[in-house]
């Protein structure tokens, strides 16, 4: 899901590195697997090298393809190989922790004084009461819009789905809003309607709730009203959305901060000031809600460079490093104090996304969290294509969750 969302497909440069075993003194060399994209990896590499120079250890940064990273990490780590530090998508952390492939950091300095981190991203670093990760960057989804198109049409950024529907008549009908039919992009409708996928505390599957049925009806209603368009083929929906918005064909989309760099290369945003960012609409104004995303740093279980890895993460996740990342890449810090940095405040993208990130909806931090999207993706695309009614489609998702994902949960 996130590979589609980021559009990243880098070449995996290495499958080894890092050594094996847990005994002996610290090796003094940290192998870091960076799963970011081509717009981001040079900055992360530079900061990593600066951290190593200041910390008195060596670092080797290896860029890996995001869509291959999790499987390659698991394969390598199970054999006592792989990186010492891994940039993990937030949903991967509980899975890796459950499988014993990342180190418990609860008794290290990384788990102390975490009060500076935003609460929701920090939740992704924990599993069963223990700390296994440190938040690197966070993100969420916002309404991105073409300021000129909206101004020319006399339209304000919509705060509700009904307002978006009404604005479409002035913005070119269905071309006004491109609705990505991927599962992650269904979450603003679901969370905004008060729904969720599972209730992890109660161990219940709630994806087929009345709130979620209403949410998918709302999304489909935008298409039926000719207020939005979508791709018939789910495999190219994201790429089509990117092209439509970058070219100026679509006036509005919902996307995250990772997409901004690519939008600014498009014809519609040669003037970066033309890109507007607002919270996602909701059923009620001011009640929109979007999922939290982002990445964490984890340490491989059994690394021979644990102490150096801890020093490395302390530096990479510091407020100073996060401010540099925000300034140069427009990615959102996970530390509260970083938002007070003058360079961070001056970044228009970060400033616009700050309230969005702080209000982001926590996802279920369970080992199976990443597996919740595939069944929903099929159902959401089928609903938007008019192949299935929302209730029937979501009932199938609930059954798939029960049969193959969270088999110990009940359907509630």
Automatic annotation (TrEMBL):
Q: Which Pfam families match?
A: SBP_bac_8
Q: What Gene Ontology molecular-function terms does this entry list? A: carbohydrate transmembrane transporter activity; maltose binding
Which terms does the UniProt entry file under GO BP?
maltodextrin transmembrane transport; maltose transport
Task: Give an example GO cellular component term for this record.
Answer: ATP-binding cassette (ABC) transporter complex, substrate-binding subunit-containing
Q: Which SUPFAM superfamilies match?
A: Periplasmic binding protein-like II (SSF53850)
Q: Work out whether the entry's keyword set contains Transmembrane.
A: no
Question: Which top-level group of life is the source organism from?
Answer: Bacteria
Query: What's in the keyword line of the UniProt record?
Result: Signal, Sugar transport, Transport
Q: Which family does it belong to?
A: Belongs to the bacterial solute-binding protein 1 family.
What is this protein called in UniProt? Carbohydrate ABC transporter substrate-binding protein, CUT1 family
Q: Which organism is it from?
A: Lentzea xinjiangensis
